Amino acid sequence: MNIKELELLAEKNRKRLVEVVYAAKAGHIGGDLSCLNVMTALYFHVMKELNPQEPKAVDRDRFVLSKGHCVEALYVTLEAKGFLVPEVLDTLGKFGSILSGHPTIEVSGIEVNSGALGHGLGIGVGMAIAAKMDKKAWKTYVLMGDGEQGEGSIYEAAMAGHKYELDNLVAIIDRNHLQISGNTEDVMPIDSVKERWSAFGWDVIEMNGDSMEDIVKTFDAIDYGNKKPHLLVSNTTKGKGVSFMEGIAKWHHGVLNEEQCKEAVKEIEERIKGLEG
Q1: Average pLDDT over every residue of 17-33
Q2: Model-level pTM?
Q3: Model confidence at 45: pLDDT above 90
Q4: What is the DSSP annotation of 241-275?
């Protein structure tokens, strides 16, 4: 897909996300929206050998959603990729649904149960080591939250990633500056992220996670042979793409009412028309 096609798909996924979260009456929509561009790029430009008919293909790239509370963004992406059918995604929030508020392996295309914050990178390190041991070319991608950086287990994993020269591992921090209790720098400061991770021996790149063009350019520039694990600091906007949510902490776990849902959908549909035109 080219940049415009990826932008269009991200907007369609964004519309679907708003509708799904509204229907479920639950979801972490602010963080869903901030990471949706990156997730769209990963599944439709970056990751290889993803096949809904063979979800456990040996040579597939792996994805771990460490910030598992933003699973709704993953669900709509998996639907767009063909792993989930609409009839199943529409059961989100309903009794008996296989779709939970965090990723589970019951859902095709999901690699691990995740969402206990701080654990995803350790799992990703293990996956990347396994690929090295088996002399396989597939890569592992781990998406973390910036509020999640307060978890100490992340830094144990960071040290291991450096020790084992895991250049087949890419971690991404969704750096939207807001967590459930407010601004990250008020709750538990993590700046400067780049210097911190560089000190751990990682190849650190900052990107504009609100720009599909910059996302694609950044992923395409990764040097998978430099013997360093990679960290992408994805600078994003909480609630990206819905103007009344952008940069507002309460939308970390906000629930839309009917009027708000209609307003958000209308705004996204206008961008879709512009991209299609």
Answers
A1: 93
A2: 0.95
A3: yes
A4: T-TTTTT-GGGGS----HHHHHHHHHHHHHHHHHH
